[in-house]
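Open question from group meeting: does this chain pack into something compact, or does most of it stay loose? Before anyone orders reagents, we agreed to write out a predicted structure and look at it together. Recording both the input and the output here so the notebook holds the full record.
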Amino acid sequence: MAAARQRLRRYLDDELGACCDEDVEQRLDELATLEAGIGTAQADAELDVLSALASETRYRLVRVLVAAGEELCVCELNAVVDVSESGLSHALSELVDAGLVDGRQDGRWKKYRATNRAVALVTVLEGSVSADE
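Structure tokens returned:
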């Protein structure tokens, strides 16, 4: 932490033209307030969502469900990704847990749809890739 404090002091000295211990302490307090505002629970929930998308299978499932704009049967999703039925079930379960897809039983069939959270994330990702091209 001492090295970080020293580096911050050098940065503030460059930015302010001169820096004292009070300036460093004030900035550290401001940064602590920013960090506290994020909240551990919020950060953990967001990391769960990002972790759910960190698998090619799960990401493809989300993309297909967002693109479909409607419910798809698990058998339709199985035709999209080349995984075992148990692998597909596990992937969908993780996506449900992350709040990216909703599933419901329809007679003999299980159907899934993308949530608003999934649509928003895919929209952001599409925009970030398009902006860089």
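Observations to bring back to the group:
The chain has a mean pLDDT of 88.
The chain has seven helices and three strands.
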